Amino acid sequence: MTSDTHSPRSANPPSTTASWPLGGLLVLAGSAFVTILTEALPAGVLPAMSADLGVSEARAGLLIAVYALAAALTAIPMTAWTLILPRRTLLLALLLGFAATNVVTAMSTGFALTLAARVVSGVFAGLLWAMVPAYAARLAPQRSGKAIATALAGMTVGLSLGIPAGTALGGLIGWRATFGLLTVLAVALAATALWRLPQLSGEAANRGTGLMRTLRTPGIPAINIASLLMVLGFYVLYTYIAPFVEQAGLGVGTGTVLFLFGLGSMGGVWIAGATADRRLRVATIGLLALSAGCLAVFGAVGHSTVAVVLGAVFWGVTHGGIPTLTQTAGVKAAPLDPDTANSLWVTGWNIGMAGGSLLGGAVLDGVGSGALPWTASALLAASVLTAVLARRTGFPSPSRMHARDHDRAQRGSAVTAAPKG
Known about the structure:
The protein has 421 residues and is mostly helical. It contains 17 helices and no strands.
C-alpha cells in the first residue's frame, strides 16, 4: 500500500484522457477576456466616465492605476490564502466578483465608490491571472504549454479586439451599459464553468507551499527577472505610442499602428502554443530578441511609415507570445507551486507596467519621444541576456528540460512508493 501524503491531488487528478479539453480552456480564455476588458476599458471611455463622475480626466485615470496597483500588491498573498480552495469554486467566485464590481461601476454616481470598486476588481484580477495558467496546465498536463497559450489567448483577443470594440460600443450605448454587458458576460461564464470545467482540488495545507520555497526554486528568479525587464521595456514605448507616432510624422495614425499590433499579437499566441512544450527556450529567446530588434528599428528609422507598420506587426507577435512562454516556463520550473509561481509573475507584470509608464514619461519629458524606443530596446536586450544565461533552469534546452522532468518523476515515484509509518 502506498502513501498519498505527498500527493494532495491524487484524489482529484487532472484529466488524463487523450482528448483536448477545449471547452474548459475556452472558459478560462473567456475569463481572461473579461478580466482584461474590466482592466482596460476605462482607458477607452475615460472622457465620458470623467464627465459623468464629475472629475478631471487626469483624476479619472486613477481608475486604471489603482486597479493595477491592487493586483500587484495582493496577487501573492491572495494566492497563498486561497491555495486550499478547489479551483473551479475559486474561479466561480472571481467571475461573480467581477460581475458585482462591474455592476457597482455601471451604477455608481460617485467617484469614490467607483474607485473602491476598481480596487476590489484589481484584487480579483491579480488572483485570476495567477490561477488561470496553472488551471489550464492541469487540464492538459501532457501539453501544458499549448493549454496555457489557449487560455491566455483571451487576454490577447481582449487587448487587440475587445478593447477597441468596447470603446466603440461605449460610444454607441454609453460606458455604463458597456460595463453592464461585462457583468452579463461574467455571469454567463460562471454558469458555463459549472458545466465545462472539472472541479480540481486546491493545494493541500500540509505541503508547506510558500513564497520563499517558490522563490528558491531553480529558474524562478531568472524567469521573473527576464519577464520584468520585458514588461518595463514594453510599457516605456506602448504607454506613449501616441506621441511617438504623432511626432514621427507618419502616413498612418496611432489607431492603425495599434490595430496592426493587435493582429500581430494574435499570431504570437499561435506561435507560443506551437512551441511552448517543445521549443520553449528557443521561442522565448527568439521573441525577446525580435522585440528588441523591432524597438531598435523604431529608434533608427521611426520616421519611415513602412518600417513602423512592419515593426508594429512583429512587435505585436512578440507581445502575444512572450507572456504565455514566460508563464509556461514558471509552471514547468515549479510544477508543485504553479499558482504561487504565477502570482510572482503577475506581481512583476504590474510593477513593470507602472514602472515602464513612469520611466517612459520621464524619458519623454527629459529627452523626447525619439529616445523612447532606444530605452525600451535596451531593457529588452537585458531581458534577452537574462534568458540566454538561464540555460540550465529557467529556460533550459529540450534535453535539459527532459532530464529535469525525468528526475522529478523519479523522485516523485520514490516518495509515493515509500511505505507508511
